[in-house]
Amino acid sequence: MDMQRQNPLTAIMSSDHKGIFLGGALLVILFSAGAFLVEGFASSNNIRSILLLAAFLGLAALGQTMVALVGGLDLSIPFVIGASNILLAYLFGTGIPAVFCILIIAVMGLGIGLLNAVLSYRLQGQALIVTLGVGFAVVGAAQIFTTLGSQYSGTVFSEVPKWFATIASINGKTLGLPIPPVVIIWALISGLVVFATNRMRRGREIYAIGGNRTAAARLRISEFRVWLLTYGVSGLMASITGMLLLGFSGGGFAGVGDPYLFTTVAAVVVGGTSLLGGSGGYGATVIGVLVLQVLTSLLVGLGLNYAAQQTVFGLLILPMVAIYARTPHIRMQI
Amino acid sequence: MTQILHHLRGQFSHLIVPAGLVAVLLLICAFRSPQLFSAVGAAGAILVSAPLILAAMAITPIAMAGRGGVDLSIGPAIGFINVTIVTWLTSWGFESPVAVFVFAIVVGCIWQILLASMIVFVRVSPIIVSLAGFMILSGVNLVILPRPGGLAPDWLSDWGYGTELFSPVLFVLIAAFVLWFLFQRTAMFQHIRLMGADEKTAYTVGININVVRFAAHLSAGVLTGLAAVCLTGLIGSGDPSQGNTLTLQAITALVLGGTSLAGGRGGVVGSILGAIAMYLIFVVLSSFDFGAISGFMTQMSYGLILVLSLLLTLVATRPKPAAV
């Protein structure tokens, strides 16, 4: 459109990656502001805690990104996180070898994701509500299961294996480096996902379905299989996040997932993935996650409480979306 | 005659599932908790379920208006009106019923106009606008009133006893129904349905879709205000987080009521039935002694019934080959 005046700025603004540029710029600005305004902001301790919390949010938001790429939303993520969290704590208390416990929960998470996929594929356009309903049912069932025969409702106490707790603890070390292992895991998974979605056939199919499902069907891409893949990944990643959060906190609590209901969507949106499907990607979400965590840390450093942070998050989403994900005018859609 | 029947069936097919659900639940209630059918029991039921009924009504026109619009901010918006009534309005000395009602409705409408402006003029998709609205208002509510407290005006607190069947809450509900049915007879309402079903067609036939979207949000704003007044009457004080739980409940009620989030299909009667069904589920479950797990039972049942009713609605309203 703007062929006449193609200066570098308009080139960036009209490229597919403007979300990444804008997010990156925002990240640098926020970080500099933090380093300038808050004492100890740029200290290695603070950076480590930002990265640790970003890893949890990033893992939880991976599935949300995949689902958003096909134009859906997965509201079951916080509930799967909470259910995995207390169920793993419960299983650790039963004496089953820890590795099996983790496998059982991971399979459960994947199963819930696949169930979401089947249901929301059948009920086109209602994915939001299907996942919400499945989430309610899952967390309710998990709490009933763990509460039966226990006097604490909603919380499960048990011994978390030490090696498991180190993965997600702030003082955890990776091969002697002072970085919690979960951050490294997140970085590896991010690299893998970005590669898979950009370079592999299965990954490109996600974009094809999100961009234009009729065209994708003509290319003989199975929409159902893409649905299974995205929602399956979402359920699996949510259960992994829930398990890692158990290692982080040490006690099982179903409400641990609650903040992730809206923050995963916020991370996806701030990063620059359109909720309408087809554009964006996990690389953008990683930037979105970092922006949100650096911003949180900055706001905490400035003495703002959780309530004020939420307001700022909300105020941040609208301009970000207004910059890069405006729906075309109705005249253009006809 | 058969054509009329066919037409009626098309109009009301989305009500089959919620009406059946309410009937079954009422039958169970007749055995499990017959006190619901006494005057006092019914009065309590109306009082407790009124905020949810009105909230579910409020998000109906927005969902019908299409673009996947589901107002996530409804709960915090109700909470905002609730906390501002007990903090600002009482400190300004405006405690009369007229002042409270006018304030609640005006604030509800202003909020909805803000949302609609973002959707219409900035062209951000409705779900993101209402998500941002949820986060902004739930934060703001906690800043205005950090913890539950404050006192509602005396006349409003008195609602909370809920012993009389013909209580003010019932009249508010009736007023809301009457207003809605008047609104339903207008051309504007048909335009909302048409826009929700197919926005491009609505635009091409010359409907001013921006005005229609504002109208959908304004009608939601009025109902939001009424819901907030009923909530304030129910709890008799201010609570910054009570409203937030209403969002998910209202959406559940909306979907139980057969309104499609894809737009164009559904109606407020369904949402009312959905909200009543949710209250009845709660009553039935509390009649069993689940002890520590009763809250979890309610949550799980809401989830299961939500998914099941979606599947049932799919079967009941599956588009059939046109008979005519």
TrEMBL record, chain A:
Pfam families linked: BPD_transp_2
A Gene Ontology molecular function term of the record: transmembrane transporter activity
Regions annotated as coiled coil: none
Keyword field: Cell membrane, Membrane, Transmembrane, Transmembrane helix
Oxidoreductase is among the record's keywords: no
Record CDD domains: TM_PBP1_transp_AraH_like
Chain ranges passing through the membrane: 20-38, 50-70, 90-115, 127-145, 179-197, 226-248, 260-277, 282-300, 306-325
Localization of this protein: Cell membrane
GO cellular component, as recorded: plasma membrane
UniProt keyword Transcription, yes or no: no
Membrane topology: Multi-pass membrane protein
Protein name per UniProt: ABC transporter permease
Organism: Hoeflea prorocentri
UniProtKB/TrEMBL annotation, chain B:
Bilayer-crossing regions: 12-33, 39-60, 72-92, 98-120, 127-145, 165-183, 214-236, 242-261, 268-288, 300-317
Keyword vocabulary terms for this entry: Cell membrane, Membrane, Transmembrane, Transmembrane helix
Subcellular location: Cell membrane
Matching InterPro entries: ABC_transp_permease
One Gene Ontology molecular-function label: transmembrane transporter activity
Name this protein carries in UniProt: ABC transporter permease
Record-level GO cellular component terms: plasma membrane
Topology of this chain in the membrane: Multi-pass membrane protein
One Pfam short name: BPD_transp_2
Keyword tRNA processing attributed: no
Domain of life: Bacteria
CDD domains associated with the record: TM_PBP1_transp_AraH_like (cd06579)
